[in-house]
Task: structure prediction
Amino acid sequence: MMRDSHRFIPSLQINIYPLGERALVLDPTPDAALSWAVQSKLCWIAEQLRQLPSVEEAIPGMNNLTIVVRETRQLKALQAKLDSLWHSAPTEEIDSRTIEIPVSYGGDGGPDLLSVAQFHHLCPEEVVKLHSQASYQVFFIGFQPGFAYLEGLPKHLHTPRLATPRLTIPAGSVGIGGEQTGIYPLASPGGWQIIGQTQQALFDPTSDTPCLLKPGDRVRFTPVEIAL
Result:
């Protein structure tokens, strides 16, 4: 278990705005760079809110939090609660695991490795080296069960999504979408550039902890092979 120290920014101004008739969005950093310090606060706030009978859902996004209440009349009290929770969120150190994900790059499991390399004027081996040497942090789980949004993709690998999304991407596919990389836990449509495949299960509904990854975890990709 690795221990990371994260310091929060006490002077950061929060932005709270309505989303539909029964939801509010807490967005502390609309114009700021992504920050795990902010994300950690939001995850803590989400846990506190889920214990309230008036809250139906608390959904962390990338440096924002969406909260859905059961009745519209509860929004005013929620807004005051959000302000209070933001200023009382702990600034202590948190536990952070490092998870190694084995990946077979290229070949049938990574059909876009070559095109990503060509886009960046690199050889496929250089793409794999850059992708696997970086350390990524899980900001939140979304899109589908177990799908971790990872921060830390090297700028040299930022790649636009496919112009035409695929109808089916196999479970375990490792892809790049814009400024992020991620792993598809389940088969689904998608537009990310698929550069590899892992046999590591990301989501097991029969487990007491269905999602392998959780916010705050560090992720490292370990090359198993490179097929060209």
Summary: The chain has a mean pLDDT of 88. The first helix runs from residue 36 to 49. Residues 138 and 145 are 14 Å apart (CA to CA). The helical segments are 36-49, 75-88, 113-119, 124-133.
